[in-house]
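Ligand-bound model needed. adenosine-5'-triphosphate.
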Amino acid sequence: MALPFLSGKKRDQVVSVDLGGRTTKAVQMQRKGDRFELLSFAVMDAPIYEKTLTADLVSEHLKSILQALEAKTRVLALSVGVGDSVVRHADLPQMPVSDMRQVLRNNTKNYLQQDLSRHAFDCHIIPPRNNAKTQDKTKPQAGPPKYRVLVAGAREQLLADLQAAVKSAGATIDMVAPGLVGPVNAFEMAMPEVFSKEVIALVDIGFKNTTISILQEGDLLLSRVVAIGGDRMTTGLAEVLSISYAEAEGIKIGMPTEVQTELEAIILPLGRELRASIDFYEHQNDRAVSRVYVSGGSSRSDLVMQMLQSELMVDCLPWNPTTFLQPALPPQQMIEIEQVAPQLAVAVGAAVATLS
Ligand SMILES: Nc1ncnc2c1ncn2[C@@H]1O[C@H](COP(=O)(O)OP(=O)(O)OP(=O)(O)O)[C@@H](O)[C@H]1O
Ligand SMILES: [Mg+2]
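Prediction:
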């Protein structure tokens, strides 16, 4: 399930770029039979994380990423963040996905309760077996049967800008997808047993936002965005301690136990919002979420993970989205990957979707 707004043909090699709000994460991967090799990765500051990107800036940025990766291919898969894409559930009349995309373009208000004009869409039909109960509970089916569908959308202008940027970087665009589904695809590969048999939540703590996706036996049944991420933690610390942003960032990463109380106060509302999503799912489906798997920059902090766990009252674990990959990295990166891995979930997930 890639949910691409734009997609090309399947490839053997790809450079997958996660255009994060604060950091760009990129991986170069290739398919070898039924296995995947990780050839290189790169983590770089996003060009300007406060403003909107221009095609020129993105193009220059992509060039430096390709260089840092020592990329052998110019085929790119791009993931865009929650500010630039929407992922929603909708009930649509039974029809082929290509028709759904068209119907959505003309009726966003009707199906998505939001005016998303000049957007491109993709749809993923959720197999009926798992959501029959939910549908029965909420409303008796009236009229023709419907599909429960996961819909992803992005502005056409953004897609055109990205296409232009990729072209002027001398590369080819294979796919543009919402970052939110990246961890889902990577998790399916990294932990196939848990993915297909359990009810779990995937949480990605980003810069401005955190996303939660609840997966029931492999189906994405709920996703939400909470507008709190690593940036709020640093800004909050800078404010209460009357220090600069850079100092607060240093303390947050280097000696977080010194500011434990202050950090707790910031993580509390994040935990509450995530718990509310879990409660909502559990109430609707009569199933318990057994574990929360966390990715994103802040999942690198043990303290953040502990605080989240005590708020959510369910096991919270960081997970490594690269465990199913054959490492074929340069020696230095072999050492660094351990640290960086939790941040690569989106990029790895989009790469897998392009290669499989
Ligand atoms: N070891 C660490 N401890 C705590 N926080 C960390 C650590 N390493 C990175 N971070 C935080 O992670 C954040 C960046 O995370 P990430 O790269 O996942 O965001 P992003 O993908 O750019 O944002 P988004 O997903 O919202 O677009 C920064 O705020 C940074 O302070
Ligand atoms: Mg991110």
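The chain has two domains: 1-191+324-356, 192-318.
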